[in-house]
Amino acid sequence: MPGMLKNMIEYSYRIATQNDIQAITDIYNAAVIRGGSSADITPRTYEQRKAWVESHHDPYAVFVTETVDDDGERRIIGFSALSVFYDRAGYDGVTDLAYYIDPQWQGRGVGTYTLTKLLEECRKRNMRKACGIIFADNAGSIALMKRFGFTQFGLMPTAATDSTGTMRDMSYWYLDL
């Protein structure tokens, strides 16, 4: 259907810079306040998110997903990260991955695009396993894990509270790369 191509939204993906920290902070805090996807119970400050971004050293990194808005300006609509899974040398090559999408952009394929690019980065950086730790009732993220072939390897009941005060089960997922 040729007309559909004009309405398709294009996304781009790149490594985060210092200039992206405010957008990363805003997107993350929206998730914290909403509940259901973070065990942080209060919003994070710009300085806290800056320190988090700066803590990612090669091969780990933080990335942003962008689109071009109606005014032709680039807009960050999500971010993702490859983080240390466990800080012992024997776990090198195993990464904890995370992704957060601006609430206004959820349900538009941004999560699928972002996870595709994040897994490409895993492989480029010679990771051997990717792990995701997700609230067990986060249907969107669980569906993405399954879609990309992740295997659930654990469930920890009543493990974490979110900002709404809801106690949540944690599910643990991995993918061999």
TrEMBL record:
Location of the N-acetyltransferase domain: 11-177
InterPro entries, alphabetized: Acyl_CoA_acyltransferase (IPR016181), GNAT_dom (IPR000182)
UniProt xrefs under Gene3D superfamilies: 3.40.630.30
Protein name per UniProt: Phosphinothricin acetyltransferase YwnH
Keywords per UniProt: Acyltransferase, Transferase
Domain of life: Bacteria
